[in-house]
Amino acid sequence: MSVELRRNGLHLTGTQLALDATRKSPLSFVSHAHSDHIARHERTIATAATLRFMAHRLGPLSAPLAVPYGRPFELGPLSLELLPAGHILGSAQLRVIREDGRRIVYTGDLNLAPSLTAEPAQVAECDTLVIESTYGHPRYVFPPRDEVLGDLEAWVRQQQERGAVPVLLGYSLGKSQEAMKFLSGRGFSLVAHPSIYEVARLYGELGVRMEPLRPFDGHVEPGEVLFFPPHRARGGALAPLWPRATAVLTGWALDGPGATRRYGADVAFPLSDHADCPSLVRYAKATGAREVITLHGQAEALAQVLCAEGLDARALGKPQQLALL
Fold first, then answer.
1. Contact (Cβ atoms closer than 8 angstroms) between residue 192 and residue 215
2. Domain 2-139+274-323: assigned CATH number
3. Which of 29, 60, 104, 270 is the most buried if burial means most Cβ atoms within 10 Å?
4. Phi and psi angles of residue 185, each rounded to the nearest 5 degrees, phi first
5. pLDDT digits (tens, 9 = 90+) for 104-162
6. How confident is the model at residue 44 (pLDDT cuts 50, 70, 90)?
7. How far from chain centre, in Å, is Cα 3?
8. Tens digits of per-residue pLDDT, 301-320?
9. DSSP designation for 164
10. Burial level of 90, CB count in 10 A (0-12/13-18/19+)?
11. Can you say how many angstroms the Cα of residue 295 is from the centroid of all Cα atoms in its chain?
């Protein structure tokens, strides 16, 4: 059996199983419900939370298979198991065990830092590891999450004390809910763009609540913190709110002032739902993998770092076939 990187994503050759396929496939494992990992598949393997978010974004799904963490099941001659990835609520890694006992793990997007809204990532022991590499370059070393959240809270309080509306820019699914959970626990009232609010309601139904929270209707009450999607903040959507201050929540904050300008924000906080480079290296070592394949983002850089650490690693950068022998 081999893994093939096609135009629509990874595929286990010799089977119908695709991994995070971005176009309709007969059967695909979906690691999480961010838009660049989902499509309307004929059959979908994912956690119940991921399927819920997918249905919210895509409408009713055809033949969804909800799989709990840590409960192996059979797919022909293969044994499959989902393990928490720590990225967003419901995110999962996939471990495939072949008939000969060889274990292959696909991490999907991975986060190893403690999260307020996602299940803690679990090390998936394996022989071959296919690992996401979004922040795989050595320059990406995130500050401790508690430190970042503490700085965020201080900034929000500072803006409110000077009478400005604090506006936080974050992805509608995942990043926003993490910051919302933290700030609600610190006593802040929250207001959110409808796209973020609806996802937060789903989080609540899945057991992760953030209150008080209301949908944005064009105004912000004193003491409230506004959450807004970055792509909708451009233009006049926020113009009536003045004075205001805008912060973006992104791991790309480590790139310096350019990241702040890119999002049209006043400040950027390095809050990420991905693992940084040192965390990816530690994880790869912890799996015990004899072979590591880096994928997406800084794949080449991460492969070089892993090789320097004594691992057999290489990047899967463009459509090609990789024999898992």
1. yes
2. 3.60.15.10
3. 29
4. -70, -15
5. 999 999 999 999 999 999 999 999 999 999 999 999 999 999 999 999 999 999 999 99
6. very high
7. 22
8. 999 999 999 999 999 854 44
9. P
10. buried
11. 15
Contacts of 246 (CB under 8 A, 6+ apart): 167, 168, 169, 233, 238, 264, 265, 266, 267
Q: How far apart are the first and last CA of the chain?
A: 8
Rounded to whole angstroms, how far apart are CA atoms 236 and 242?
12
Q: Which two tokens stand for residue 157?
A: 């309080």
- Reference 82, options 19, 175, 15; nearest CA is 19
Q: Are strands 9-12 and 2-6 parallel, antiparallel or unpaired?
A: antiparallel
Q: Where are the domains of the chain?
A: 2-139+274-323, 145-269
Residue positions counted in the chain: 325
Q: Which amino acid is at 101?
A: G
* DSSP codes, 27-42: EEE-S---GGG----S
Q: Is 255 left (phi over 0), alpha (psi -120 to 50) or beta?
A: alpha
CATH code for the structural domain at 145-269: 3.40.50.10890
Does the pLDDT at position 321 exceed 90? Answer: no
Neighbours of 242 (CB within 10 A): 8
* 3-state SS class at 157: helix
**C-alpha span between 105 and 100 (Å, rounded):** 15
Task: Please give the Cα distance from 179 to 190 (Å, whole number).
Answer: 10
Overall pTM > 0.85: yes
Q: Which helix (H) or strand (E) holds 49?
A: helix 48-58
* pLDDT category of residue 325 using cuts at 50, 70 and 90: very low
Residue pair 113/86 in contact (Cβ under 8 Å)? The answer is yes
The two structure tokens encoding residue 241 = 């709110």
Task: Using the structure block, give the residue that is written with the tokens 């933290």.
Answer: 182
CA distances from 56 to 87, 190, 200 (A): 19, 22, 12
- The token pair at 283 is 């994880």
